[in-house]
Every structure is written in structure tokens, then in C-alpha cells.
User: Which sequence fits this backbone?
């Protein structure tokens, strides 16, 4: 049972990192990124492949962040010319392109068969609890650092400008500031956080395949952010933990009444429950649990 | 030192919004643009400020051609515009709106933010002082910490003016600063524009309120159907027969 909770906590923390990345992009800057999972996938594969060449994990994690951030660069250049809704479609297309590239470039990624045997983080501590606990400690530390960094950014002149972009981009241009430069930095920063999340995922799960990186992951992150409170760093953290509660809690629903519903149906019921929760949130608490940026 | 606008043409489909518009003003002067709805005043503003590309013609500020520059670069060149419908940063407070407009902040780069925290802090303190002075000048102190989206229309116009000032321009383009503003506030805005102009900041003002405008500016340009109809001192211009027909004929004088 402890092992189960540690596993949930690690996956939850990975969602926290993803949600923090989306918070700086959408919550603070208003960029509708529907392709977050693409950067997550790039980080996961980058760190896995690099570490399997014998590179230490510390370096492969840094590469995961850097490569994911670099991948955001061309997206930024293309997408900055587009309005919100088109940007959303382009980013969604980007993440699907990443997934299809992983599927078809077998020489690099082994295609749909996936990459088994990704080096486990903290393998020196042995398989099982100590290694998992160390991973949990490390990712919790990274989450805390990322949250502190975002708070610092939100309270800074940079934060003021990106919030101004969210509120009215043309007014900012009229004052002599170029939104494009800021948007590219924001995209790269959010992508780097997703990349690090991907690296943690790769070295914890130790097996990667393209079907782990479907758009549903992106929408789970969106849901976490909406439930927690858009544009608030604490909202990303609370929302990601709440998301895990929903995703995992619905498992126990079946344990309570095993005869009522089959395991196969349960997967759909889970999604339904998550969707229902999202609808209820938008109806009764649109500002999220901790409140969003519109009410401060 | 002047703003010079030469032969601007702009069509939208078959509609000729601007037809050879030319005028000139000293960079530190005051010039008003009047004209009935649809005369092309706001389109002219968008072209001059770089938000819309002209089909032909040129805009020169203090001898520098601006035609190839985008909106942000033109603002950095010293010419900042406001909007007819205020575009405040609605979730930021009035103070934050003003502070966001200050140019050249090192804290606006992620590298500066984390690698030069001391410099960012001292710059931020200086910008805060400048914002306080602007808030006092525009008498916005009571709402300084209110999110700008909650202000009245007139107060938002003041915030836009304040933001423009924080960008340290030589020339401000005001798009209908008095529209929808209560008479007391109109007097206040007019008086503040006078104070700022005495300090050497020029104003190019589009306005419907002819009474207020002719008291504010020494020179008017009258536009109708995308063309300049007349230009000169308010009294002369308003005496012009063509102006009377195009503009005053359709409005109670």
C-alpha cells in the first residue's frame, strides 16, 4: 500500500510540473497551448535516449529541458502570427506530429514497440521503496523550486508584461514593447518544465512508447489547472493533486462495488467522472479551488 | 522637429478610407483632427502609429522615416498612441498598468531577472517613483491599487494617458480623449494636457467634442470622406463654407 501511495505521489508531482508549465503559458500569458504533451514526450525520449548512451541522469535531465525548450522555438515563431484559437490548433497539431514522429522513426525511438529498460533514477538505492522515495524527494524538490521560480516571475517586471499581453496585446505594442519576444520566452519556459516532467516520467516508469503521449494527457493538465485556479501558482499545485485524487479515486469505486461494473467499463467511467467533475467545476466554482487571477 | 504625414492612401476593398492625406505639426505642438463619423480619423491614427499598413504615402518623425517600422518600434521612436475604446490591462492595478509601460527594464528579461536582482530592484524603485508622480499628475491616487478593468470610462482614459506618459514619448496620439467622459473630467484632462504640453510633449488629438478641442489646440485639421478638407486656426477653419457643409451641417453647432 505504501508503494502505491508513493507511485501516486510521483505521478501527481509530474502533473504538478506539467501544470506549472501551462500556468506560465496560459494562466499568466494567455497562450492557449493544446500541445503540452508534445514537450512532455520530447523531454521523456530525450532523457531516456541520452542516458542510455551512458550519460549521467543529471545531464540527461538538463538536456531534456533544453531540447524541449528548443522545440518550442519554431512553434513560437510560426504560432506568434496566429490568433488564440489558431494557436491552439497548431499546438495540438504539433503534439500529434511529435507522437507520430516517435511512432515512425523506429531507428531512434523503436516505434510502437517502445523503449524498455530506461535507466531507473536512483538505481543505486535498489529497486523498490528506497529508490522510489528518493525519486519522490527529487521531484518534490524540483516542483518546489519551479513553483518558487514562477512566483518570482509573476511578481517581476517580466510577469507584469506577460500579464499585460494576456489582457491586451495591442496596447502593449502601442507602448513600444514587442509581445513576440516575451511569448517565445514563455513558451520555452513552459516547455522546459514539461521536458523535465517527461524526464522524471521516463526514469520512473522505465518504459516509453508513443501511446503514453496522447492529447488526453494535455487535457488532464488543463483540467488540473482549471480545477486549481487559472493563473495562480498554488492553483497548479492544488489542481494537479486534485486530478490525481479523481483519476485514482475512481479506481477504488470499483473496489467498493466490484460486481457492479467490469474493469473495461471502468476505464470509461473514470473518464466520465473526470468530465463530470470538470463540468461541475465550471458551473459552480469557475475560479477554481484557490481562485484565479481575475479575483485577487 | 516635426511629425510629417505625406499623401497617405488606404483602401479597404473598394472603400477608400484615406485619400492622399497630408499634414504636418511640430513634434512638441498641439494639433486637433476633427471630422464626421467615417471621415477616416481613426484609420489615419492606425496608419500613423503603425497598426495598419498604408497603401501609399509616408510618415516621418523628426526627419526619420517610420514607414518600415511596426507599431512597437514607432512607439519606441517617440510616438505613442491611445485607443478610442480604452485598452487598459484590466487585471493589473492602475499602478501596475503605468509601471508596465516604462521602457528599457532589465527585469523584463528572464536573464536579468535572475542574474541581476539588485539592478532590477533599483530600477523597479525608480519606476515606482515615476509612476507615483504620474498618478499624482493625473489625480489617480484614489484608484492606484484598483484593477484597471473596474474603473469608469473616463478614468480608463486617464490610465491610458498615464501609460503613454510612462513610455516617455515626445508625441502622444490621443484618440477621442473626451468621448464618454463627464464634463468635470474633461476639464481636468484638458488642463493636464496643457501642463504636459508646456513641458514639451506634443499632442495629436482626434476629437468629436469641437468646443473642447478648439479651446485646446491652436490648429485644426478637418477631414471628410478620407480627405483633408481644411486646415488652420479653429476660427478660420470653422468659418470655411465647405467645412460647415460637411461637418457642422450634420451637427447642431
Assistant:
Amino acid at each position: 500500500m505504501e508503494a502505491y501511495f508513493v507511485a501516486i505521489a510521483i505521478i501527481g508531482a509530474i502533473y504538478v510540473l506539467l501544470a506549472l508549465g501551462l500556468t506560465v503559458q496560459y494562466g499568466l500569458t494567455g497562450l492557449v497551448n493544446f500541445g503540452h504533451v508534445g514537450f512532455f514526450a520530447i523531454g521523456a525520449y530525450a532523457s531516456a535516449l541520452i542516458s542510455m548512451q551512458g550519460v549521467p541522469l543529471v545531464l540527461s535531465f538538463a538536456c531534456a529541458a533544453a531540447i524541449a525548450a528548443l522545440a518550442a522555438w519554431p512553434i513560437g515563431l510560426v504560432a506568434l502570427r496566429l490568433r488564440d484559437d489558431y494557436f491552439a490548433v497548431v499546438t495540438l497539431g504539433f503534439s500529434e506530429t511529435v507522437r507520430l514522429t516517435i511512432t515512425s522513426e523506429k531507428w531512434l525511438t523503436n516505434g510502437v514497440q517502445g523503449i524498455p529498460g530506461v535507466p531507473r533514477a536512483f538505481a543505486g538505492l535498489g529497486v523498490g521503496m528506497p529508490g522510489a522515495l528518493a525519486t519522490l524527494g527529487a521531484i518534490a524538490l524540483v516542483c518546489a523550486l519551479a513553483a518558487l521560480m514562477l512566483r518570482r516571475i509573476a511578481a517581476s517586471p517580466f510577469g507584469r508584461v506577460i500579464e499585460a499581453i494576456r489582457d491586451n496585446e495591442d496596447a502593449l505594442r502601442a507602448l513600444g514593447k514587442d509581445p513576440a519576444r516575451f511569448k517565445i520566452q514563455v513558451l520555452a519556459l513552459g516547455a522546459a518544465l514539461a521536458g523535465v516532467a517527461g524526464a522524471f516520467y521516463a526514469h520512473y516508469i522505465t518504459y516509453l512508447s508513443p501511446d503514453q503521449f496522447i492529447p488526453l494527457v494535455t487535457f488532464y493538465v488543463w483540467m488540473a489547472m482549471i480545477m486549481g485556479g487559472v493563473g495562480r501558482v498554488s492553483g497548479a499545485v492544488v489542481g494537479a493533486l486534485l486530478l490525481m485524487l479523481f483519476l485514482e479515486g475512481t479506481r477504488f469505486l470499483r473496489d467498493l462495488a466490484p460486481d457492479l461494473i467490469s474493469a473495461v467499463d471502468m476505464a470509461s467511467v473514470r473518464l466520465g467522472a473526470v468530465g463530470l467533475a470538470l463540468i461541475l467545476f465550471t458551473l459552480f466554482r469557475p475560479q477554481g479551488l484557490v481562485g484565479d487571477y481575475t479575483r485577487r | 522637429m516635426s511629425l510629417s504625414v505625406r499623401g497617405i492612401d488606404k483602401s479597404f476593398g473598394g472603400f477608400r478610407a484615406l485619400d492622399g492625406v497630408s499634414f504636418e505639426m511640430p513634434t512638441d505642438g498641439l494639433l486637433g483632427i476633427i471630422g464626421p463619423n467615417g471621415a477616416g480619423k481613426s484609420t489615419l491614427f492606425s496608419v500613423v502609429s503603425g497598426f495598419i499598413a498604408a497603401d501609399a504615402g509616408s510618415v516621418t518623425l523628426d526627419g526619420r522615416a517610420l514607414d518600415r517600422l511596426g507599431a512597437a518600434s514607432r512607439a519606441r521612436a517617440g510616438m505613442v498612441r491611445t485607443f478610442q475604446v480604452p485598452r487598459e490591462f484590466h487585471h493589473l492595478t492602475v499602478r501596475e498598468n503605468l509601471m508596465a509601460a516604462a521602457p528599457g527594464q532589465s527585469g523584463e528579461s528572464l536573464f536579468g531577472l535572475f542574474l541581476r536582482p539588485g539592478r532590477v530592484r533599483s530600477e523597479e524603485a525608480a519606476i515606482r517613483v515615476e509612476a507615483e508622480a504620474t498618478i499624482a499628475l493625473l489625480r489617480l491616487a484614489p484608484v492606484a491599487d484598483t484593477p484597471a478593468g473596474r474603473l469608469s470610462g473616463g478614468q480608463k482614459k486617464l490610465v491610458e494617458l498615464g501609460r503613454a506618459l510612462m513610455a516617455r514619448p515626445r508625441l502622444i496620439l490621443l484618440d477621442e480623449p473626451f468621448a464618454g467622459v463627464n464634463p468635470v473630467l474633461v476639464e481636468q484632462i484638458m488642463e493636464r494636457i496643457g501642463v504636459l504640453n508646456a513641458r514639451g510633449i506634443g499632442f495629436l488629438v482626434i476629437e468629436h467634442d469641437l468646443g473642447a478641442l478648439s479651446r485646446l489646440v491652436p490648429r485644426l485639421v478637418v477631414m471628410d470622406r478620407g480627405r483633408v478638407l481644411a486646415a488652420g486656426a479653429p476660427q478660420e477653419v470653422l468659418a470655411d463654407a465647405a467645412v460647415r457643409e460637411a461637418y457642422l451641417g450634420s451637427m447642431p453647432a
Remarks:
- Residues 161 and 177 of chain A are 9 Å apart (CA to CA).
- The mean pLDDT of chain A is 90.
